[in-house]
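Suppose a colleague, Dr. K., hands you the sequence of a protein chain of 273 amino acids and asks what its three-dimensional shape might be. Before reaching for any lab equipment, you can write down a predicted structure in token form. Begin with the sequence itself:
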Amino acid sequence: MKKIIVALDGLKLSQSSVQTAVAITAREKAHLVGVFLDDFTHNSFSIATAMESKDLEIRMDKDKQIRDNAVKEFESACQAGGINFTVRRDKSFALPDLLRESIYADLLIISAEETFTRFDEAPPTRFVRDLLSEVQCPVLIAPLQWQPLEKTVMLYDGAPSSVYAIKMFTGILPETNKLPATIITVRGDENSHVPENQLMKEFMKRHHPSAEYAVLQGDAEHAILEHLLKSDSRTLVVLGAYQRTSVSRWFKASMADMLMKSIPCALFIAHNK
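The predicted structure, expressed as tokens, is then:
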């Protein structure tokens, strides 16, 4: 039985993350751990303002109640979905806690909008970018609005990271892998074959024999984005990402960053370090 974890902020509970996690866990007959990152530095209010207004204790109690209610809501969703689940509430710093949790998980589910602060950010947030650069298991970025998955798209460029992501996806989510799949490659020449054509098709024949292939032409980022803009949240995109150093990512965003900003699809991201 696979172990899936879902990262949740009890002060701003992501309904899409909960729905995605419950649906994926049920499909895969896995075990779900709801990791509530109750970071002691994260409040719904400004500490300075609360100190000035002398109602810090009241606001703290209200935050605790909101977090407790979020846990109950998660438990109810899991029970309604008929899945095996556990709740864990980590109370230290959110990012180190989640990175530690990821060492002992097969898959981590999180929303691209998670900040674990009281402030909102456009996806992908700084928290998500930092998480993806250091995470120790594959990550499924929940769509902004959950819908049952109907198909998968696997991005393949001939690099080991793209093959590794497909390996991880087919091994960790074998039931989801039964959905109709398309392998997308982008070529900058007139070649209509995928890179390492024979080896790749031999590999996919064992992992998803009915997968179709689409060879696009032009610049990779533009061609892939144009193709995926036709998709909705019923599509799951599989890709390798986040192999660059933290310095180089200042200068060139990864494909995953671009897709999180631009499309409503769920993303399965894995990288071999």
